[in-house]
User: Fold this.
Amino acid sequence: MSEVLRLEGVSKTYGKDGPAPVEVLHGLDLSVARGEVVALVAPSGAGKSTLLHIAGLLDTPDSGRVVLNGRDLTGLGDRARTEARRQELGFIYQFHHLLPEFSAAENIILPQLANATGQRAAAERAADLLDRVGLAHRADHRPAQLSGGEQQRVAFCRALANAPALLLADEPTGNLDPETSDRVFKVLMALVRETGLSALIATHNHALAERMDRVIGLAGTAL
Ligand SMILES: Nc1ncnc2c1ncn2[C@@H]1O[C@H](COP(=O)(O)OP(=O)(O)OP(=O)(O)O)[C@@H](O)[C@H]1O
Assistant:
């Protein structure tokens, strides 16, 4: 099975040179296979966001390697990392982070234009993605006109807009009430499965984690 992401011996300590260093990751190994959906479950403060930032090329480890699609990105400069992030990764956070002055469709079109996709193809992809998450009728609405669950479904579409190789999600339904969270999570899983996407999804929610292919914890913490 081919790997989309491999972390090898990744370590990270915050405030290394200060009076109170915090060692968060120590020699972490992790891999995500193509088409695999992996749940990352660990208590608050265990380092889930740190790991996602490193896997998402938003932060660098103190030591270890980050290999994305077979390419070692560890030593790359900012520009190459930004490029790899834009082309190969999709992000979902607890809060939607949609642009308030743009419609749902435009929020999905814009990242594609930034990636040099033509206007027409970008609009078609946005329409298709919105349709898949049951929001075709909301395409022209702005985020403030949508419910929390709808906003998050648009954010899923935006994360998939550029057909990334890997989706990284940090508590993707953590901001929603339990019932909406459950419903919206099902939509996310269906979308990921239909598109054959690989994903690493951090969650506190064990019931959601059980629906993924594999559940991993972080060293020193119980699942
Ligand atoms: N920039 C920073 N400087 C110092 N310490 C930090 C920094 N960022 C995070 N930490 C510490 O590192 C640890 C791991 O943080 P992280 O946000 O990765 O955890 P988490 O598992 O995502 O937690 P949560 O589930 O609460 O979001 C925490 O103890 C946090 O206080």
